């Protein structure tokens, strides 16, 4: 019909454009993007004129004070690095600590005239430096003009002045660039961008007002400056040691640590707060949420990476992560703790690696590790899900805690091993050690989780056929049995259990538990009758491949005969307490006369357990039984950490800086079978970078010898650390101490 339009069906929306979707940003919310990259910088113009150009353009700036050169005073033996305790860093850049004066030398084209000439030293960090955020800091030479950092002229000689600069004690930690800007009547003239004027500013545990100040010289020397660590593992009653090269001063490690914070997209402005830095880093050291540094693996299959037991230090891990931009394979708890320790010490935060023996992983916060027994007293493995780690490693770092009440600063627990999420990410801490000891589990961060790791009870339940469960035995002293760290200034261990908990049964301990309950932590209150038969399993020192005997001692404390129906199980377990295979089962009936002692001897043949072994070779024995006359339950547990053969490491007794030396590693295969795809690793702080050698096969009974030449870089006592690793034999290590003279 004329004058009317034909209706048109609505068309489908156009298809989305091909390719990747746009990156979502904060633009539109903020005028500039959030600055979270220390590696990106913003170049300042060499000349900034005041006002608009005249008819003939901008006037020349010649004839005024000009900068001829800048000396960062950055050699290791010069004042800056010596006084700031940074001379050991293998870097050609200036590295200083905040809250403490450092010096630079500036040469002008003529003598500096304080009454006439005006200049400033400018420090910038990040891609969008701003004065209000503390990422652009001008420093002036006179007291009349001062910013947040102090400046003063220390010395004047001819055309060169020495400028003393004191960064603010809570300034951002990271890599800065320095400019020198001169004021003229027409504008500002400054130095051009030059990477040689980059400098690093670190936390300062030597300065009282810094939040990481540690007022103990020996502890500070150990927890900031020492590169050689000992990490404790094994079992509570059979402690083993693992040497580790933290290597916090090695070339490239500091840049790798700053890259970790960049990769986390941590705002530059947060990087002066050790609470925020350590919490962010505890998430970034594992790869679970954010493509962080290390991939955890407890499977026993390390085909696509390096076995956790093969690493000798942190340097290779951190440099690989920084260069590949990909998580490094693989880690377990002590590797996470060791690399985290390197990160903390490198940035200047005092830190140490802690080992907690019989560490509970309590994911529901009820402070109980439940072991389920059937009617006869035999362990029900299908229903027993809780596990207790033979040991677990975490870190302590030293800082003030202004967010907590007074008295809860000092040592703080941080843990990078991905166990449970905290605020949605796999991280833990910082949690005050003092808060853990006194039961203040309400304090941030993750205090309740750590409290459970050292205070949980082991509760044995008897499960009847109708499904009801009754507690029959409670062991309140098994978990958190021993907490160790390295002794400051010595290669020995230090028991710090008393820093985490009061002695069992004391008034203080009961008060702590009551305090924890006030904050919602419910401990098992059952108090089942104690059996009148005691059972003890012996402490054994067994090497891999040994046959051995286990003598179970039964003590009848009653005046009547007792008959015990026993169940004795031997399983191979990971150090996390997770069972792999049962290799032994016995169910003897033991009769004990009144007030008598009876021994039950169990023979264990190596062929029974060898084929099931996993790395760290732990055998877990659990004996449970029921007394016929009383119905009481008898239980005992024992972890046997099998000992591996040792690597023999030999180095010349003494050596000199810059003179070639040789380290020799020797190993003999003690087994009748061959070891295949064997990796041997070796390194030493101040001696040699990480090196490794591959051996396709080592036949049974045969030996290998590897000699490696190296040139010591600095004097002092240090160590060569070596490991041997293959699928059939993990955790073989050795070390040699060497003294280097100047």
TrEMBL record:
Residues 27-42 have a biased composition (Polar residues). Residues 325-418 form the Transglutaminase-like domain. Its EC number is 2.3.2.13. It catalyses: L-glutaminyl-[protein] + L-lysyl-[protein] = [protein]-L-lysyl-N(6)-5-L-glutamyl-[protein] + NH4(+). GO terms for biological process: blood coagulation, fibrin clot formation; nervous system development. GO terms for molecular function: metal ion binding; protein-glutamine gamma-glutamyltransferase activity. InterPro entries: Ig-like_fold, Ig_E-set, Papain-like_cys_pep_sf, Transglutaminase, Transglutaminase-like, Transglutaminase-like_sf, Transglutaminase_animal, Transglutaminase_C. The keyword Cell wall biogenesis/degradation does not apply. Belongs to the transglutaminase superfamily. Transglutaminase family. This is protein-glutamine gamma-glutamyltransferase. It comes from Salarias fasciatus (Jewelled blenny). The gene is f13a1b.
């Amino acid at each position: 019909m004329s004058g009317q339009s034909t209706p048109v069906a609505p068309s489908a929306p156009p298809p989305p454009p091909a390719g990747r979707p746009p990156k979502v940003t904060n633009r539109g919310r903020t005028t500039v993007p959030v600055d979270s990259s220390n590696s990106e910088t913003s170049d300042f113009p060499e000349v900034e004129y005041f006002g608009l150009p005249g008819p003939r353009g901008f006037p020349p700036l010649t004839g005024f004070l000009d900068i001829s050169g800048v000396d960062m005073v950055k050699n290791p033996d010069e004042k800056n690095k010596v006084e700031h305790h940074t001379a050991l860093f293998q870097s050609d850049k200036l590295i200083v600590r905040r809250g403490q004066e450092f010096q630079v030398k500036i040469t002008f084209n003529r003598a500096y005239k304080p009454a006439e000439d005006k200049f400033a030293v400018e420090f910038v960090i990040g891609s969008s430096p701003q004065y209000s955020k503390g990422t652009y800091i001008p420093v002036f030479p006179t007291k009349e003009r001062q910013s947040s950092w102090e400046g003063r002229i220390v010395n004047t000689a001819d055309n060169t002045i020495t400028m003393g600069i004191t960064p603010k004690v809570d300034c951002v930690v990271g890599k800065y660039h320095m400019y020198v800007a001169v004021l003229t009547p027409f504008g500002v003239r400054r130095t051009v961008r030059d990477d040689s004027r980059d400098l690093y500013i670190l936390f300062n545990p030597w300065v009282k007002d810094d939040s990481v100040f540690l007022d103990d010289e020996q502890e500070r020397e150990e927890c900031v400056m020492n590169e050689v660590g000992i990490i404790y593992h094994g079992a509570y009653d059979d402690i083993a040691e693992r040497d580790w090269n933290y290597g916090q001063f090695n070339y490239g490690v500091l840049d790798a640590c700053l890259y970790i914070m960049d990769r986390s997209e941590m705002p530059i402005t947060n990087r002066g707060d050790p609470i925020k830095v350590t919490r962010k880093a505890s998430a970034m050291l594992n790869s679970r949420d954010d493509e962080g540094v290390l991939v955890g693996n407890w499977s026993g299959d390390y085909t696509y990476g390096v076995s956790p037991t093969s690493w000798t230090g942190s340097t290779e891990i951190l440099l690989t992560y920084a260069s590949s931009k990909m998580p490094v394979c693989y880690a377990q708890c002590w590797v996470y703790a060791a690399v985290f320790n390197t990160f903390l010490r490198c940035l200047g935060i005092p830190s140490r690696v802690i080992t907690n023996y019989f560490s509970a992983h309590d994911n529901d916060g009820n402070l109980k590790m439940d072991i389920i027994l059937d009617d006869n007293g035999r362990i029900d493995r299908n229903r027993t899900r809780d596990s207790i780690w033979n040991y677990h490693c975490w870190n302590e770092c030293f800082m003030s805690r202004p967010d907590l009440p007074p008295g809860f600063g000092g040592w703080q627990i941080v843990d990078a091993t991905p166990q449970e999420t905290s605020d949605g990410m796999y991280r833990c801490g910082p949690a005050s050690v003092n808060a853990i000891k006194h039961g203040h589990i309400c304090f941030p961060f993750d205090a309740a989780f750590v409290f459970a790791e050292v205070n949980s009870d082991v509760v044995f339940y008897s499960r009847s056929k109708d499904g009801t469960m009754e507690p029959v035995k409670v062991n309140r002293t098994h978990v958190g049995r021993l907490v160790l760290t390295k002794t400051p200034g010595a290669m020995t261990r230090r028991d710090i259990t008393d820093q985490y908990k009061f002695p069992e049964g004391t008034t203080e301990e009961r008060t702590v538990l009551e305090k924890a309950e006030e904050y919602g932590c419910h401990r098992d209150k059952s108090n089942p009758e104690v059996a009148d038969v005691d059972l003890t399993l012996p402490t054994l020192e067994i090497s891999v491949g040994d046959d051995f005997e286990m003598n179970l001692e039964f003590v009848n404390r009653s005046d009547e005969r007792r008959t015990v129906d026993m169940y004795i199980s031997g399983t191979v377990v990971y150090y996390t307490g997770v069972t792999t295979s049962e290799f032994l089962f016995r169910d003897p009936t033991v009769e004990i006369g009144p007030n008598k002692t009876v021994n039950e001897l169990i023979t264990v043949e190596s062929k029974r357990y060898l084929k099931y072994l996993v790395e760290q070779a732990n055998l877990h024995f659990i004996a449970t039984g029921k007394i016929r006359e009383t119905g009481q339950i008898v239980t005992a547990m024992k972890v046997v950490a099998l000992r591996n053969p040792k690597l023999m490491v030999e180095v010349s007794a003494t050596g000199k800086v810059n003179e070639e030396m040789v380290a020799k590693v020797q190993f003999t295969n003690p087994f009748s079978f061959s070891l295949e795809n064997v990796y041997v690793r070796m390194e030493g702080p101040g001696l040699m970078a990480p090196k490794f050698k591959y051996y396709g096969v080592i036949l049974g009974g045969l030996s290998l010898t590897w000699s490696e030449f190296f040139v010591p870089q600095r004097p002092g006592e240090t160590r060569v650390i070596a490991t041997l690793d293959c699928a059939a034999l993990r955790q073989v290590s050795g070390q040699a101490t060497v003294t280097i003279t100047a």
